[in-house]
Amino acid sequence: MRQIRALSLALGFFALVALPVSGQDVAGIWVLSVNLGAGGSGAATFVLQQEGTTITGTYSGAYGTDVEVSGTAEDGQIRFAFQTGQVGLIRYDGTIDGETMTGTVIYGQSLNGTFAGTLAPTGEALWGEALVSKIDALAEATLAGGSVAAVSIGVKRGDDLLLAKGYGLADIENDVPATAETVYRIGSITKQFTSASVMQLVEAGEIGLDDPMTKYLPDYPMQGHEVTIRHLLTHTSGIKSYTGLAEWRPTMKLDLTDEELIDFIRDEPFDFAPGERFLYNNSGFYLLGMIIGEASGETYREYLNAHLFGPLDLQGSSYCDERPIIRGRAEGYQSVDGELLNDDYLSMNQPGAAGALCSTVPDLLSWTSALRTGGVVSAASYQQMTTPGTLNNGSATGYAFGLGIGELQGHPSVSHGGGINGFSTQLAHYPEEDLDIVVLSNTPGAHVGTIAETIAKWALGIGVPVVLDEAITAEETAAYEGVYELAPGFEITISAREGLLFAQATGQGQFGLRAQGDHTFIASFDDAVRIVFVVEGARATTLILYQGGRREAPRIR
After folding, report:
1. What domains lie within the chain, and their CATH numbers?
2. How far apart are CA 172 and CA 179, in angstroms?
3. Any idea which of 114-128, 309-323, 330-344 has the lowest mean pLDDT?
């Protein structure tokens, strides 16, 4: 049976060395994610056969489809290559050790990099050392190109803690290794702590889910609308998100008060009437932090310390203010043209209850377990927290109270990710298997969503699919190009350049799309993000975005 192997390729210093080879057969399908820093990024698929010491096969990717590949596996060195019209000869040199493959690659005469990968399972559920070894290899592949500083991973099923471990450097300048106990900013994973705090106050009779927010914030101008606490929790309020406003961005370094930050949105027109649509909204959760303060008589920081972090003994968790000494805190980084730089400064006053917390792998594993087993809120409250919100027309949004409700190939999931200056995070729970996965990184480009989903697939016995990068014709790109409206004021622009397709959302950077066939594309920055076009005749009419759920965007021009 042909085996499937997944690989990650990244820019690095080239050194041709003879590595010991295990004698393993290299036959199979190999998928390479390519990151060459300033040289660009992409993906490639190799189908390799081996007879004796001879390797043959085909390459498909940006440089062609079914291009002939040849090479050898002999004397401790695996070598194969293929010829392109664009950059000339592309050569790979490496070794297989168990279920990992590592080595070097040269593109033409000047561009070189390194690659690392793992042997993907074909449907067998993994646990124990078999899964640990694959997670280790996946983490090392993530760090291999030097564009990710660190990642810490936790995996637990029931009471069985499989792994809690750090990889890479939490602080590059001081050469501090990442560990399981490394403290990371967790970004929007904060929202479930905020939601749980609200539900505690609901249980205490201090807040009503259907209370108007003006009961607690009477001076907020509602412009004729009534926004409830439930609207804020489910991103259906219609209030403008301050993080999407161009005039807010220059102020990110300032320690704004609640009133100063709310001034950015108080006179902005609503995006829609409350309950009419779903639109992810940091303003709503920032306002919830203020409401928690009004209802409890404690600041948001004080409330979390007294009612969540203290009682649950979450010693590595806190409101992530800059000035206090937080032992084990990771530094944040960003990758620019393949080079790691310190992240842009952000005053931690500004994320507030929408994204200002810090935590660790063990704390988040403890937290998600306590949340669903009565250690934080009642079973009835947790049921409400994990029930998707509904719009005025009765349709479900796929998002509950600070938690995304979805599924992974038939396995229900409760999850949320986070992204904040210098950090990216993912926390996922699979209730039918009682499986928890935490992935924390101090670099936004670490693809934590893909890492968490890949680990889940291995643990659940779901085959990890091959990610392609098929060539597309000019006629196909013309059919997809256009502007699609995901929500009022939030658009996705699809454009083409040199035969490649790109997407760009309002206020965000442009990213590449890798063609999978059947009008389906996978984002270059994260294998878990997928776009499918609905094509009628010679023109796409709708874009469907799969990112923590399913959202349709009709073409508007």
Report:
1. 4-119 (2.40.128), 184-460 (3.40.710.10), 474-554 (2.40.128)
2. 14
3. 114-128
